[in-house]
TrEMBL record:
Native organism: Rhododendron griersonianum
Protein name: Glycosyltransferase 61 catalytic domain-containing protein
Keywords, comma-separated and alphabetical: Glycoprotein, Glycosyltransferase, Transferase
Location within or outside the cell: Golgi apparatus membrane
Pfam families (UniProt xref): Glyco_transf_61
GO molecular function terms listed in the Swiss-Prot or TrEMBL record: pentosyltransferase activity
Amino acid sequence: MEMAGKKTHPVESRIEHQRHLDLVMGRLLEGDSQTQLEANGFACHSDIHTEVCVSNRPVRLDTSTMTVYAPFSQGMPRANRTMSPYARKDDNVAMELVSPVQILQGNITAPPACRYNHNVPVLVFSSGGFTGNMFHEFNEVIIPLFLTSRHFQSRLRFIITDYSPSFVDKFDKIISHLSSYEVINSTENGNVHCFPGAVVGLHYHDNLAINTTVTPEGYSMLDFKQFLRESYNLKIRDLSQTQTEKPALLLISRQKSRMFLNEDQMVTMMETLGFRVVIAKPDMMANTEKFAKIVNSCSVVVGAHGAGLTNIVFLPEGAVLVQVVGLALEWASSYYFGTPALGMGLNYIEYKIEPEESSLISVYGRDHPVVVDPASVKAQGYQVERAVYLIEQSFNIDVERLNKTLVQALGLVGRSAPLG
């Protein structure tokens, strides 16, 4: 006869629940901050990029004012802290687009009554800032959200400030794979919510990068890419799983700045080399779920420095990024996409243009400082630099030079150029 299982006493259950909460919350902090959390139930981490505050004790959150009440120790003096839950603290322009969250802790005489009680902790973050730009969406929200919440195994709830319906719709697959609960829109749900614990803000490491040594579970960018494959049901993990006769090359086709002025010639040359060319225009990239599947089927991506290259997160491991590096864009190209590509398990090749391939020559002339002395332009400030090299510049690619680079890319994906 099967014996009935031993019932857990409610007190034991609460103790076990608190131990688990202490564990998952504690993994978000280290050093003195972790010690402070253990002692007081509340602590914050702050660095140049971001700020993250953690409570492993019950909190009340008034979404009408975005005030967090953390009255966990009546013996503590009252403290008031204001923070903006977006991982770009060092950028004043971005932070002006992020609403602050107020945290009150200590001896709070009359915190508001709970309207809704939740049995999982809450994570508060903003979809303001520079969202709307693919790079910033992944860099400052999606990857930090993964870093901060993945180890909760979906047992937490999100409150999103500066709620952007388009952002939530665009990344619904990712959000729903990180939380089993419906997102709370702070702008529509003006009530007091009570939670057993809270995290305000998101951890951030580097541009499209994860520092494995300081993540709660030792996650890496390869783990993040695996998470994306699970979220979007992407089938190809690495190039060994691609069996197509012609390797697919995705050409990021920009329409306003940093355009390829002789794109048709480039495509003809690519097809001659044996590639199946997919031209990715903005309308194709608008649906992230569909476009992720297209990118995942490709072996090579070719594109100029810009937000569209962020889609390399969906490439199979072993694929190749060929980044077209315009005049004066060497540092930005390497910093924002070149180095991160290597951390994603990709091969990276730079195609650094010659001055004659830049449209700036036809505007300023071959001997103008814009062409021969970019440092003098940069010395005039970022807005001047941006206007010239990021906005005004486009490219007329030397297809014979690019051909040599793509032959190298073919070799990296285990193919060879046709003879003749």
